[in-house]
Write a structure and sequence with these properties.
By secondary structure, the chain is of the alpha/beta class. The protein has 3 domains: about 30-110, no CATH class; about 165-365, Endonuclease Chain A (Endonuclease, Chain A), CATH 3.30.870; about 385-545, Endonuclease, Chain A. It is built from 22 helices and 18 strands. The chain has an 8-stranded mixed β-sheet with strand order 4-3-2-5-6-8-1-9, sandwiched between helices. An 8-stranded mixed β-sheet has the order 10-17-16-15-11-12-13-18, sandwiched between helices. The protein is globular. The chain starts with a helix and ends in a 7-residue tail after the last helix.
């Protein structure tokens, strides 16, 4: 079939679908969001009704569950888990033994979660030979680190997650989504072999439509294109089977963990990563998704402040492998084939960029090292959190942070306060116009404790901050997808680039100072003026903060 006939048939199918769409209230009632929502609510009702029936059935059953509850509490206390998560479970188990115990068992006996963990572990063991740390890079880091402390984090990232540090890269920082978008277009058009894209949010928009047209053209040129988006998009942002539409353009596609009308906790673990890899030689990451608000073409919460980095050189290898792991996880495979590893990783050649700027774009900085790293909810190591805490603990002059959310566990709160109390300038920029009211109320509940202990908090007056940045002492920075909340630090798949002794760190700090100049400082007086009902709401929400 010719391309013209194919497009004509496709238009006819789409027109037919549009004619059959219900309108008005019927469109809402019969939407997939409503169907999934009602189905899940019915399952929750049946679950709770069963628990209630058991609790009222007899004294014997209550006695049995009191004993089970005590055993469950002992088990929870001895788990390798954060204290906040333990508290969330212990309260219902102790207060409502039948409900709390059965709910704990329901959540912790999910088979799909166990299968995903097993598949990830198998892939990571297989990839260990591809992600060994080059000792020469470590030696350079040790020689450039005044106290030698930087090598400790390098060792941790490689041992805990299989993420080596790389020298010989070029790095470019993008202070806004529209800046990254412009560079994305250039790199996508220059693709010769393959394009890998993994994003949390995709909407039918100018940004995505522009990218999609380029992807379709690259496929016609023989470039392999793989595109993966988080399945949460299928709830409200994209058609349920949108990945099938992309397959019609010969774009290989997956909706990761697509939302289904089945009550299961594995759907709580979302793919929050934003990765673009082109030919194994260039990679992007940061907070920017594929929707028009991220490039300020559409206004939702005032001006949208977001950031990203582009990396060229051998560090791209880790981003490629992160993508391939998630791709094969979505396909429910236990390994990445040798053919894939050779084609997308082993056969990629890099020139020695550590000695020259040749081959890099203007505005890219060489030198130092880059460590791409990821985090996943099935690992005992909380890598994203540990990197942030390491930066806080080793800072000597300043730590500057941008984050859209501030929902902290005890360890992160202590690390922030300890950093400030050591005399290190510790500053957090938050949004002034929030995207989620409940998250904003929760964030406010932490403000007073942090401010009283020396942590400075600012809110970006023009709008919403979506950037996820830690920058410290002019020598180290992390830019990626990892928010300062429980979802990012414990429940989601995440990624970032840790950068050390590269001049791009100064670009990040310069942008931070520009952003700070457009932000208003929050003081104890500011917090005391918040309405009482908002303070109480934030304090109540702290009880379930680990789930938010």
């Amino acid at each position: 079939m010719s391309n013209e006939n194919y497009e004509e048939c496709k238009m006819q199918r789409q027109n037919g679908k549009e004619k059959r769409k219900p309108k008005g209230i019927l469109r809402v009632v019969f939407s997939r969001t409503a169907v999934i929502g009602v189905s899940l609510l019915l399952q929750i009702y049946v679950l709770f009704a069963t628990f209630y029936w058991l609790s009222e059935y007899s004294t014997l059953i209550n006695s049995i569950f009191l004993i089970m509850g005590a055993i469950t509490v002992i088990y929870i206390l001895n788990e390798e888990n954060n204290a906040s998560f333990k508290m969330v479970w212990m309260i219902p188990v102790l207060v409502i033994p039948v409900f709390g115990t059965l709910m704990f068992l329901f959540v912790n006996l999910q088979l799909e979660t166990k299968f995903m963990r097993k598949r990830l572990n198998l892939m990571e063991r297989e990839l260990s030979t591809h992600l060994k740390q080059d000792q020469e890079v470590v030696d350079k880091i040790v020689s450039s680190s005044p106290d030698g402390g930087e090598s400790g984090l390098v060792h941790y990232l490689n041992q805990a997650g299989g993420y080596p540090a790389y020298a010989g890269n070029g790095v470019k920082f993008f202070p806004l989504g529209e800046d990254k978008f412009a560079q994305m277009i250039i790199e996508l058009k220059n693709a010769k072999k393959f394009i890998f894209m993994e994003y949390f949010i995709v909407t039918k928009s100018y940004m995505w439509d522009t990218i999609l047209e380029i992807l379709k053209e690259k496929v016609k040129e023989g470039v392999e294109v793989r595109f993966m988006y988080d399945g949460m998009c299928s709830l409200v942002l994209l058609p349920y089977g949108y990945y099938k539409d992309l397959e019609e353009f010969r774009i290989r596609s997956h909706a990761f963990s697509q939302i289904k009308p089945v009550l299961s906790t594995y759907q709580n673990n979302r793919d929050h990563r934003k990765i673009l890899v082109v030919d194994g030689k260039v990679a992007f990451t940061g907070g920017i998704n594929l929707a028009d608000e991220y490039i300020n073409r559409k206004v939702r919460f005032g001006h949208w402040k977001d950031t990203a980095v582009m990396v060229k050189g051998p560090a791209v290898k880790s981003f490629t492998l992160m993508f391939l792991k998630m791709w094969n996880l979505a396909e429910k495979k236990n390994n990445i084939s040798k053919e894939e590893l050779y084609k997308y990783v082993d056969s990629v050649e890099y020139s020695d960029e550590s000695k020259t700027d040749n081959g890099f774009d203007s505005g890219m900085h060489t030198g130092g090292m880059v460590t791409p790293y990821g985090d996943n909810p099935f690992s005992k190591e909380r890598i994203g959190r540990q990197v942030y805490i390491d930066i806080l603990n080793r800072a000597k002059h300043y730590v500057h942070i941008m984050t859209p959310y501030l929902i902290l566990d005890d360890e992160m709160t202590s690390a922030l306060i300890y950093c400030a109390q050591r005399g290190v300038e510790t500053v957090i920029i938050m949004p002034h116009i929030p995207d989620k009211k409940y998250a904003f109320l929760l964030a406010h509940s932490y403000y007073l404790e942090l401010i009283k202990n020396g942590v400075q908090i600012y809110e970006y007056t023009p709008g919403f901050v979506h950037a996820k940045i830690f920058v410290s002492d002019g020598i180290r920075a992390s830019v990626g997808t990892i928010n300062l909340d429980f979802r990012s630090l414990y429940l989601h798949f995440e990624c970032a680039a840790y950068i050390y002794h590269n001049d791009v760190v100064q670009d990040i700090e310069d942008d931070y100072q520009r952003t700070l100049s457009m932000s208003q400082k929050i003081t104890t007086e500011t917090v005391n003026r918040y309405p009482l009902r908002q303070k109480i709401a934030g304090q109540i929400l702290r009880i379930i903060a680990p789930l938010m």
